[in-house]
Design a protein that fits this description.
Helices cover 55% and strands 16% of the residues. The chain is α+β, with helices and mostly antiparallel strands. A 4-stranded antiparallel beta sheet has the order 3-4-5-6. Strands 1-2 form a two-stranded antiparallel sheet. The protein is elongated and about 85 Å long.
Length: 370
Amino acid sequence: MSATLTHGGLETASQAKLTWLRFRRHKLAMFGLVVMVLLYTIALFAEFIAPFNPDRSNARLVFHPPQAIHFIDDSDGGWALRPYVNAFRLARDPVTLEPRFVPDASRRIYLHWFVRGDGYDMWTFIPGNLHLFGPENPRDMVFLLGADRQGRDVLSRIIHGARASLSIGLVGVTVSLMLGITFGGLSGYYGGRIDWFVQRVIEFIISLPTIPIWLALAAALPKDWPPMAIYFTITVIISLIGWTELARVVRGRFLQLRSDSFVTSAWLDGCSQKRIIFRHMLPSLTSHIIASVTLAIPMMILAETSLSFLGLGLQPPAISWGALLKEAQNVQSIASAPWLLLPGAAVAITVLALNFLGDGLRDAADPHAH
């Protein structure tokens, strides 16, 4: 399918190029695209980007407050562009005698790019100890976003948690996409009893209360399963409930397309049903499917976060944003360490960016929206 553009002369542009040109004019969608590329890059290279091992703990640094980065170093009488943070020391409140951390201006911890630190196995099989940034002395700890109740770096744990939370959205949507296209396509293309049966199944699933079903299925998982087994099972649970919306969209489009002239022409030309569906009908739905998938990923991420927060999803030692938010379940923790809520900010940023991206794709793919 092609179209003629008249910007600086006549040229032929493909449908994909026209969609991209419309998408680029959507500033919020472009912002969402940049944010998501950045987040998935962080998740992919979490071991390298995180300054510390997410499980590295220190009992003396429990609930250590965030440390601000200073870029101008004036310790030698002049000034130089040399990032550092002030170290903290434990002191007693003169009134309550409660221990608290206070800045120690006499001791500075300098930060550098590409430093050697905690060892790791990138993607479980590439050993290394190089980190994007970190303290000059590998024995020092720097808490840019504070520490949790075991003295672990919250920033490193958020970075590592991005891998599980973001990948569970992609894997879950992939499974939902396969189920939605398969059952929605069968329902819309064949109609009749197949359509009736599929629609009754969809209506039954939609009628179920989502949260209780998640809780019941997640609670049925054996407690002695390894974290990866629980991860994939949670993904399947979310996917088995999340495919119905896409199936209805695909069904509606198939009902519309099967009576179009190009489908009738393909049928009269002797094309098999498989070729008609996969070569002629599905490509016409590509842009709509991409938009639907982009808008479905946030729901998958929120579902995993909710299950993990309630203690029925990924559990330690697995790390996800929902599991990290579980640390902030009681008022006492929030009062003494409000930075434990920062994984929730990561979830909010991701969901907003994905919704901006999905809205932009939907508008760009819809020729009647312009």
